[in-house]
Predict the 3D structure of the following.
Amino acid sequence: MNLAYIPSPSTGVIHLGPIPLRGYAFCIIIGVFVAVWLGNKRWIARGGKPGTVADIAVWAVPFGLVGGRLYHVITDYQLYFGEGRNWVDAFKIWEGGLGIWGAIALGAVGAWIGCRLRGIPLPAWADALAPGIALAQACGRWGNWFNQELYGRATDLPWAVEISDGPNRIAGTYHPTFLYESLWCLGVAALVIWADRRFKLGHGRAFALYVAAYCVGRGWIEYMRVDEAHHILGLRLNVWTSILVFILAVVYLVLSAKLRPGREEVVEPDRGPAASDPATKDEADGEAKDGAKDGAVGAKDSQDGESGPKTDATTDVKTEAKTDVKTEAKTDAEVAATADAEAASDGGTGDAVTAAAEAPKTAKKL
């Protein structure tokens, strides 16, 4: 008889009047809040704005829940579509059954949509969330404890979990694989935080490190489980998935470090209030148009002001030039008349008469 073990709760749901409060759901919700809280702190430390992580999580979390459930139902379809099964149970997410692989994959799609709407890079956001996701998994795994599911082989170790009789389970003490994975995820979160501070991981490498480290632990923990699962070449399907995803994460780490070394300098460009608030944007556009109009009117007035003095100056110059010409012509005529008078006094009467007659013509010509 095992004298020391971890007892399981007698029920996984508490009824508050007609409202059922399920331990599995509470663990998932707590995990989401922890991930958003830590992710927000890391995002702000990277130069991002407060609230951005939560805004994108509004997209990522629902997508992740749907993806996690789809992966579980597809890989364990016999539980819902086999003989004597009710397919409606596939929608009873509160009874347990979320695949982390589907949750991460489809959750990334939701995060991508949110990042596109905010104009920020998805890899930087994923790096900020990476350790928080590991903590969320650590919290979520305790939901399996409430449901008495996903335990390992029988054991008499002091930290074994006690399982009671129920559908598809036999009473006894077993390896608490949910606890092993929860502790492993805590270690993964600590590893990512340390490595990120030490090596300044960027461009999605912190997230890739989380994925690779989680897969290492999930591989050996999955191997210990005794719940029903598909096998390929003697290994459970999720073990093969862990191996494949681990390889992809390591390849990304290596290639990303070579192609895009360092860390993003700007993770969330400041687009200003006009880009985020439509009303403010319309007001700013109106002010810009009014400013442009006033500038155009001012430029026109300035041009008109300059054209007045310029016209007056031109008129003055023309008048002065005309007066000078007339004065010069008059002076030339007087000089010619004086010359003729002198010639007449010297006896050159004919030449004087001729000069006197031409003088008015010359003056007129000038």
Q: What stands out?
A: Residues 308 and 314 are 10 Å apart (CA to CA).
